[in-house]
Amino acid sequence: MPRITAAELEAARDRLVPDVIADGLSVLFCGINPGLMTAATGHHFARPGNRFWPVLHASGFTPRQLRPCEQHELPAHGLGITNVAARPTARADELTEEELREGGRILREKVERHRPRWLAVAGVTAYRTAFGDRGARIGRQDRTIGETRVWALPNPSGLNAHWTLRTMAEEYGRLRAAASEWES
Questions:
Q1: Domain named Uracil-DNA glycosylase-like: which ranges (predicted)?
Q2: Nearest 5°: CA angle at 159, between 35 and 116?
Q3: How many domains are there within the chain?
Q4: What is the value of pTM for the model shown?
């Protein structure tokens, strides 16, 4: 991947990053919002150090570790990516609670339209705000959106040092097992 300059990152604040989505996916992964590297490249979870792609493979969702530029391959594996909020930022804490709540409303509409079997929100704090569920914990949620079940996952950002690659892969693996069980 070519080196992105600070000016290019700053200019990416106005870019929208298209979803990787299709009807009837097994799992629709949902980030908090695009980072500036994602917005600059147009590829989800593109910042070096973000653990989404390694964790996706380590948990068994993909047969090999995909690169962000290979995100278009996800639907062939029954997977997709969207975000709670569309506005790119350098840090997720730049988003307002109002943006996250509105993003939750839009996300519910998207899920109702595309009907994935699972919605997996990568970031429990953003999930709590977007869905008004202050007591939510990592794991399967009681909430459904239509027939779509919901799972809160740890945020794969390198800033989330509390979760290691191994422990994150274990949690994503629990979702993968639940999704496989559901399909049987």
A1: 18-173
A2: 55
A3: 1
A4: 0.94
